What we know:
Elements: H1 11-37, H2 55-69, E1 70-76, E2 83-89, E3 95-98, H3 100-103, E4 108-112, E5 118-127, E6 132-136, E7 153-161, E8 165-182, E9 189-198, E10 209-211, E11 217-224, E12 231-236, H4 237-245
Antiparallel strand pairs: 1-2, 1-4, 2-3, 3-6, 4-5, 5-6, 7-8, 7-10, 8-9, 9-12, 10-11, 11-12
Amino acid sequence: MNTWHTLARSPALHRSVAASVAASVAASVLAALVALTGCASDGPDMADTASETSPFESAATETASLVASGVGVIAEGCSMVASLGSGVVVERSDQVATAAHTVRGASMLTVVDAQGQEHRASVTSFDKDSDLALLDVPTLSAPPLGIGTARVGPATLITWRRSDGVTLQLVGVTRLLKINIEDIYTDEVVQRTGLEVDGEVIVGQSGGPVVDASGEVIGIIYATSKDRGAVGFATDHTELRELIEARSPDGVANGRCP
Length: 258
């Protein structure tokens, strides 16, 4: 039996995440106002710094970088309707991590970058237990994100939809989990380490990365809660690192169709 959807939310952790997010936003706004007015608190006027990068410009650059690292994944071959998901360029500019259940059994895989360009892909690592897959995308050249260490706190979720392209949303990691759950074929109960994510995670966003404040991937979304709204679940950084370590340059089988 899947146990992840019966876990209770921790109100204290939720409040802690919200407070942390609020503090972070307040600090950013204050810094931006100081930069715009050119005055320091309780001090003389500052020198003209127009040539320096403003907080707004830095934030815009960071946002653009995260968007550029997000991709869409289109898997065809198992039915008349393609399976759609999200993914992230990780550690190499031509390597994408996504959810295994999105690409299982597919005979043709396409990665859509942040500019809407399509690229053929192949599977180089596949784990039905952790619900993770690694794709080789030779024609893709996008900024890769590194892998961080999962912690409770504010984070960013990167997802893709055909109608919207790559988008970002603020979420919160509320708990670190060790989960007993069925594999992607419901053949057997397995264990994986993961994250509980508080945010508007919806069906179709599987494979989207959870990114920490340093811009590093700490999890990959694989499900939403069946019992609670605005709650999702992600496989954590440990499982992702193991997936990459198992990478085969010659390619691997991507399982069977559901």
